[in-house]
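ENTRY TYPE: paired fold submission
RECORD: A
CONTENT: sequence, then C-alpha cells
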Amino acid sequence: MTYTAQEIAALAEGLVARTLPKDRWTHAAHLAATLRLVRTRDAGLERDLPGIIQSYNVSVGGVNDDASGYHETITQAYLAAIRALVAALPPGTDDAEAVARLLATPMGDKAWPLTYWSRERLFSVEARRGWVEPDLTALEHPPGRSEG
C-alpha cells in the first residue's frame, strides 16, 4: 500500500473526527494514522490514543469489549515502535516516505505482535484491557508508561 502525504493526513484527521469510512480502517491505515499523530500531536498520545480509537470504533458501529474493538497492549506496542521509527528518520522525511518505510518493516504485517507475545497471552482479556508484558521476547522499544 502506498499513501500520499495528503492521504495520510486525511486518515489521521478522519480517525480523530470519527469520519473515516470503516472500510478504509485497514492495518496499513492504523499505522499511517498513528505515525501522523506521533508527528503532529505526540504529547500524551499514550493517554489519548485509546479514547480516539474507542470513539472511532463506536462511531462506525463497533464495540469495545472483552472480545473486540480497542486493544491496549497492541496499541501501546505499535505506538512505542512507531515513535522510535519516527525519531530515527532522516530530517526532512515527509509523511509518505515515513509511512512507506514503516510499512516495509515487520510492523507492516498484522502478525508482528506475535513475535513478542504468545497468541493466548496477546488475545487475553487482560491484554485487551491493559498493558501486558511480552512473554516470548522483549520489545526493542517498550512503551513509556508515563501518563503525561
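RECORD: B
CONTENT: sequence, then C-alpha cells
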Amino acid sequence: MPEGPSILILKEEVNQFSGQTIIEVSGNSNIDIQRLKDKKILSCKTWGKHFLICFDDFTVKIHMLMFGTYRVNEQKETEPRLHLQFSSGEINFYTCSIKILEGDVNRYYDWSEDVLNENWNPKKAKESLDKIPNEMICDAILDQNIFSGVGNIIKNEVLYRCFVHPESLVGKIPSDKITEIISECSIYSFEFLYWKKKFELKKHWLAYTKSTCLRCNLPIIKKTTGKKNRRSFFCTNCQQLHI
C-alpha cells in the first residue's frame, strides 16, 4: 500500500493539470465518471494515503489500496479504473478505490492529522495517544486519524530509531519516548519522500525486511503484531518492550 510520501509524489506529478479542463473521461469505476467531463480541476490535494482531485462543488477521492498504480501521460495494457484526458496529456488510475465527496473538501479532512501537511499538529497526536493507553504502539502509529500518511514501512523504521518494541502499550511508554515517536513519524516521512524521489529508499531501511540488527548484530524478529496484523521487524535486544 503506498504511504503518504508516495501519494505526495503523485500530487506533484499531476499538478501540471491543475486549472485544466477534462475533455474526455472513461474507466470501469462505478462512480458517475461522466460527471467529470468538461470540469476544470481547481487543485489537487493529499491527506495521508488519499489523493484528492478538487472541483468547484465536489472532490474525487482516490485510494490506492494495496496494489493501486497510476500513469501520467502513458497507459498500461489493462483498462484503467479512471482515465482523465486533457488537451496537454492524461492521467490513468488502476486497481484503486474511487469515490466522490460532495461539497467542500475541508468538511471531510482534518489537515492537522497529516504528518506531511504544513498544518500537522504533534500536540493533537499526543492528545489522541493519551486516549488509547492500552493500544499497542504498532497499531497506534498506523491509525490514520492520528498519523495520517504513516504506513507499515514508516512504522517499523520509526520504532527502530526510537528503540521501542512494536508491542509496547502506548500508556506504558515514557512520555519523552512518545514525544520522540511523534516527531520521528513526521521527520521520517519527509526523509522517505526525499529518498523515494532519488530512487534510493530501500537502501536506507534499517529494520524493515532486514534479518539482522545493525546495532546488536542479532537476529531481527519478523512477526505480525497488534490488532491490525501488520508485519513488524524488530530487535528484542535494543527495542524495549513497555508493558
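NOTES ON RECORD B: The helical segments are 4-14, 122-130, 137-141, 152-161, 175-197. The first helix runs from residue 4 to 14.
STATUS: closed
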